[in-house]
Amino acid sequence: MAESEDLSSSSSNSSSREDMHFFEGVEKLLEIWFAPNPANKNADLRKIPRPMWDALLKTVRCEIISFTRNDQIDAYVLSESSMFVSKRRWILKTCGTTTPLQCFEPLLRLASEIAGYSEIEDLFYSRKNYKRPELQVSPHRGFEEEVAFLDSFFDDGRAYSLGAINRDCWHLYTLSRGGGGTNKILKRNNHIHQLHQQQQQHQHHYDDSQMIEASMQPDPDQTIEILMTELDPKVMAIFTKDECTTAKEATQKSGIHRLIPGMIIDDYLFDPCGYSMNGISKNCGKKYKEGCYMTIHITPEPEFSYVSFESNVASSDYGELIERVIRTFHPGKFIVTVFANKTSIAANASREIEHLGTIDQWKRRDIQYSRFASYDLTYAQYCKYPS
Amino acid sequence: MAESEDLSSSSSNSSSREDMHFFEGVEKLLEIWFAPNPANKNADLRKIPRPMWDALLKTVRCEIISFTRNDQIDAYVLSESSMFVSKRRWILKTCGTTTPLQCFEPLLRLASEIAGYSEIEDLFYSRKNYKRPELQVSPHRGFEEEVAFLDSFFDDGRAYSLGAINRDCWHLYTLSRGGGGTNKILKRNNHIHQLHQQQQQHQHHYDDSQMIEASMQPDPDQTIEILMTELDPKVMAIFTKDECTTAKEATQKSGIHRLIPGMIIDDYLFDPCGYSMNGISKNCGKKYKEGCYMTIHITPEPEFSYVSFESNVASSDYGELIERVIRTFHPGKFIVTVFANKTSIAANASREIEHLGTIDQWKRRDIQYSRFASYDLTYAQYCKYPS
């Protein structure tokens, strides 16, 4: 297989690596849920104006290149991946050598001063292991550095590595009020002292409403990610200007538009190659206030091909969706992660994925389940065989 | 609580740390199952004579201080923890700044030249995070270094970190023939080339018998470990020469002899403090050919107290055993790990521990399940509250 020959030659000949073209497709994914503000029912992250997002994304080393919205979610295609802004949920997914944790402080300030939120309810920072970690920029030069950075903000964040850490794996830093502790309280820090003071004032009141809230059922929520490597070069060729002149052509030709029906698609084909798409939909059930989305990002070069699929679409059986995605892209290896809270119809995803030992020619090599304060997580890794 | 004050003062005043007495109770645990040798039915690790074990343990930086046996298992108390030798299973558990991975090559050589084994069937190297990793000796200065060392021997070992890696966690390197790959083949290596050549010769024959064996049910096997920190100083005082003059007195006074009935106990009380015990039993069911054991090691100093409990006793309900152990030692925090293969009566341990959200005043903070090639693993971490 030409692809794996390319891969082995690039990794064995390290002296010439510096000269080779390389792009890190693996994204850093930051998802933050702000706690509803009892003193401000109109709090909304979408109040933050575009120039402020532009400035914030400069600290991340990327920029907005396309935008679409519905009445639940603002969806941005970025020069490096995507950003989704809802009333109280913020998602930033960026690839390459971007530095999303660098925008953490400015984001908290905008959330507090403009959007009206002073408390984080849940935070998830996650990524697959990088293909070339040595090319990353601080504080992203390794998971330890990323954890130390986040630990400087939070007293009770928890860091996990799922999968075989000497092979394909996936890192997660998470923080959840559901844990019943002080884990949502930012540490004293000069830079965000103002926010901290606001939090202190709300704290007591909050703890009470918290008790009531805890006895209530949370809104259902779930996220599935499928992170694929060593993809079929024939499929990857679709996402080049050589083969397609427009993003829409690539979307149709690959079958991306059929993966989740009913999505309004905003797609982008990079020159000479590379592809990003955001899909948004209102057909995710009435209970889902923060908007339904999907997003796909493709690094097609055979030497370091990478495709990520992510969606918060609810399903009691992700098997079919996983099959559609991997039959579309034909990865050599892939990781699946599913987060689901207890009211989600995906709450049994772990048992369902447990039964997916083999999908077509892909065989599962790892499966791990973790119970966190508010969410259950299922992690699985598959390889094509014979490889 | 005096204990936690001691702990916080020792960690905040790092400049005086060098002068403080410290002992790393956290053990490195290496368990190796050699594959039955079809050409040599009399292969047996217990053929390795005592002087050779003495020499091997010198490379680990520890020595034998007591010995007991039955017809299934040889049990050694070491200056730093324990060693158990059965027909084809070898367990080495060592604390302090010992270097168990340094004996890996000599062990493989003894297994091949004296005991009659040339293939590893399963290997597990595991440990809790160290309290003071900076005091460890190569190749044990961090999990990354330990993984790199083991990866230099094996092509397909898999390394995992369970639990929150920025808090209490537990590391595992595992290798299993059950994975169906080439993972049991040692890499070409001058030092163990002879063993490797023997393996090559047996390889083809082995792969065939392997196919047959894979369709057979494995002998049931399971291991439970309970790793405890921040223990009740009143309980810890039992394990000092101040309070007890003999090991037997400490065993009886603490209630260790009641934890698992029917164990023949070999216990040792260190001067001025510290305690180790091995228990062996033949009452573990006829199917259990490699012998049943338990082992406990205690570092009682309040500044760095640590107790480990380990046993391969079979149970379909470890809840009662976990309760007995933690009510005996009163830890501030503890980790439970359970390995069980599919024929073990502990195969449902994960679901059972899932229901143990709270045990007395201990509350679970983490639970993770992993399916490996031959074993399922459950990891859970608990904290006492209010802490």
From TrEMBL, chains A, B:
Binding note for cofactor: Binds 1 pyruvoyl group covalently per subunit.
Residues with site note (Cleavage (non-hydrolytic)): E80, S81
Keywords of this entry: Autocatalytic cleavage, Decarboxylase, Lyase, Polyamine biosynthesis, Pyruvate, S-adenosyl-L-methionine, Schiff base, Spermidine biosynthesis, Zymogen
One term under GO cellular component: cytosol
Domain of life per record: Eukaryota
Any GO MF annotation of the entry: adenosylmethionine decarboxylase activity
Active-site residues annotated for this sequence: S81, C95, S276, H297
EC number, UniProt record: 4.1.1.50
Residues annotated for substrate binding in this entry: F23, E80, F270, E301
InterPro entries xref list: AdoMetDC-like, S-AdoMet_decarboxylase_euk, S-AdoMet_deCO2ase_core, S-AdoMet_deCO2ase_CS
Pathway the protein acts in: Amine and polyamine biosynthesis; S-adenosylmethioninamine biosynthesis; S-adenosylmethioninamine from S-adenosyl-L-methionine: step 1/1
Catalytic activity, reaction form: S-adenosyl-L-methionine + H(+) = S-adenosyl 3-(methylsulfanyl)propylamine + CO2
Residue numbers carrying Pyruvic acid (Ser): S81
Cofactor: pyruvate
GO biological process, one term: spermidine biosynthetic process
Recorded family membership: Belongs to the eukaryotic AdoMetDC family.
Name this polypeptide is given: S-adenosylmethionine decarboxylase proenzyme
Organism: Anopheles atroparvus (European mosquito)
